[in-house]
Fold:
Amino acid sequence: MRVVIIGGGIGGLASAAMLARQGHSVSLLEKNEQLGGRAGVFVEAGFTFDMGPSWYLMPDVFEHFFQLMGTSAEKELNLVRLDPGYRVTFKDTARPSTPVETFAQGIKHYSLSEAQLTGRSRRARQVDITGDIERDVVVAEQLEPGVTPVLHEYLRRAKVQYDTAIARFLYKNYDSIFDFFTPEIFTDGIKMSVFSTMDRYVRRFFKTNEMQKLMQYPLVFLGSSPYNTPALYSLMSHLDFTQGVFYPKGGIGKLIEAIVRLAKANGADLRVDVPVKRIVVSNGRATGVELESGEVIEADAVISNADPAYTEQQLLPLDGREKSKKYWDSRTLAPSAFIMYLGVKKRLPTLTHHNLVFCEDWKKNFAEIFDDPKVPTDPSFYVCAPSRTDATVAPEGCENLFVLVPIAPGLEMNDATRESLADQTFATMEKELGVGDLRNDLLVKRFFSVEEFASRYNSPKGTALGLAHTLAQTAIFRPNNVSKKVSNLYYVGANTNPGIGMPVCLVSAELVVKRLMNDRTSGPCKAL
Structure:
């Protein structure tokens, strides 16, 4: 079978690798100058910057992909487990509450008292999460005395949710509402708290602001708000507290290189600098693509790794579009981001590899992203310093920083706005992270924000991640990976099932391969 894949993000590349391994003729077409999509790389002044994803979570999913390709993560990557996995800085202070009976099987615990809060007001506090539960409960007790049994119960449930998702839901294609609302969803789904929000679910267990934020922060990886995201995503806590956080030496770009290497070794043709003009549709069937150059590549199946909204509105004829512009405009988008790539000419020992700074007013910050879009007044943000782990990504004596501030999609980020937000972030980093004033120590300073996400990745409103994981945009309610209007047209990537994140995009690739195999099973493939 001849397969054409539009877009060289991780989902498109993994699809190309698996289909080529099955013996299909695969051509992948990427409009930009390099493969990897948002997981691109650039090199400047001796620094190697990962442009997008920086967390290697769900190592079992990566290992499963490599095993399907006849190899292993150990053979393809130089993986190290980070210790600590990440550091959190809290800028706010937990409020006292009275003793409560928690939902976690009636376990009684007591949150911080007024006396315990004395002297802590307005002080930044940092905690390190290691993925070693015996060490992490000590940290949790500092944030909420008496919470140890509750945390154990929460993580036990998170593991059940994760294992259930892997076995029954994550690797399953959905064609109708009856594929989703099965007897399993009403048994296992209730266990997974599908019909509650993360905010309500977390508050049933944890009573201090710090612990609640610690459990809700993984939603950053899903581009969602705890106030409208299904509680089933509490399974994310299993990843960092139990599985741990990893890093491939050389950066995330090494992961892309590994997938590219496997795809090419199995015969896939991967091309860059080849923007697609349109999908060729004949008698309701996708028969190939036409490039901007005028070249036509024929195919028996077309897989789009581009955003489904862009694919439908820009690459398909009117009669091939499944959903209207009004539909796409009404979707809840994940945040965009204001990113700074910084090459610093000094070492920063107060940082670890992954650093999270949580704002004082959690709800207000999410509202400024999702409800009343504006440049955040007091944002949470993330600082990745891979050079703390990997000397190859920065010159000797220097630090490589990736700083990300979540912002609303569609914001106008002119030069003045960017510089103002940069100054605000630098000031907060100096105060909360102890890095000093970095502005006079920069060898590299590059910004990437809404306009670049829109132009480089054809991303609607410049969203950094795609469609948010709200209940109305999860599972059967997420855009399907097969077109109902154009036969032989499929979708892969973050905006179809299962959703956002590098490992989840690998699952998305496996789902589209299962479609072409006519594999209706609900679990991971045993073999290709």
Q: What stands out?
A: The two ends are 15 Å apart (CA to CA). Residues 27 and 269 are 5 Å apart (CA to CA). The chain has a mean pLDDT of 91.
